[in-house]
Design goal:
- The protein is extended and about 55 Å long.
- Helices cover about 60% and strands about 0% of the residues.
- The protein has a domain of about 80 residues.
- It has about 170 residues and is mainly α.
Length: about 170
């Protein structure tokens, strides 16, 4: 279990460093192609989110008694709106190794808190569903079926598993 935790921590550290590096190295917007503004992208994402939730709501065919649980669930999982204000970030290469690790640990804790909130909301709503609705929620609720792909880990046609992804063990091609 410690190996898994260390691997996750290392992964978050690498992702954090890559994100910071990508921010420093972003190319200027191309003159010939208009990039959508941050507001346009947020509006598009909000629209896609609303459509997915409406589709799930329609699939579940909730009873009148379940509608309040749906409303509570929606309020709990709704993505936070971006206010455009980002805290000042030091480039990762200017942070010391302990500072980078502390940053990675802080990000991990925030992600954990987010997931704990999400688990509580999903569990409370899921308990209100009948078995047929639970099956539909399992298939469609949290990205279970995305355009015919087989979930997050297997969507590139790879055989899944930690060993294949380079998380320990030998490749079992």
């Amino acid at each position: 279990m410690n190996i898994l935790r260390k691997s996750i921590l290392i992964g978050f550290t690498v992702l954090g460093m890559a994100a910071a590096h990508a921010q420093d190295a972003q190319p200027a917007a191309k003159a010939h192609g208009a990039r959508p503004s941050k507001e346009q992208m947020q509006a598009k994402m909000a629209d896609m989110y609303a459509k997915r939730q409406a589709r799930l709501h329609d699939l579940l065919k909730l009873s009148a008694q379940q509608e309040s649980a749906w409303a509570t669930y929606q309020a709990a999982i709704k993505p936070a709106a971006m206010d455009g204000q980002r805290p000042e970030r030091k480039p990762m290469n200017k942070l010391t190794a302990p500072e980078r690790l502390n940053l990675a640990l802080e990000m991990t804790r925030k992600r954990e808190a987010f997931l704990e909130t999400r688990v509580k909301a999903v569990s409370a709503f899921y308990a209100q569903l009948n078995p047929a609705q639970q099956t539909l929620f399992d298939e469609h609720g949290l990205g279970g079926e995305r355009g015919g792909r087989r979930g997050h880990w297997g969507h590139h046609g790879h055989r899944g598993g930690w060993a294949h992804a380079g998380w320990g063990g030998e490749h079992r091609g």
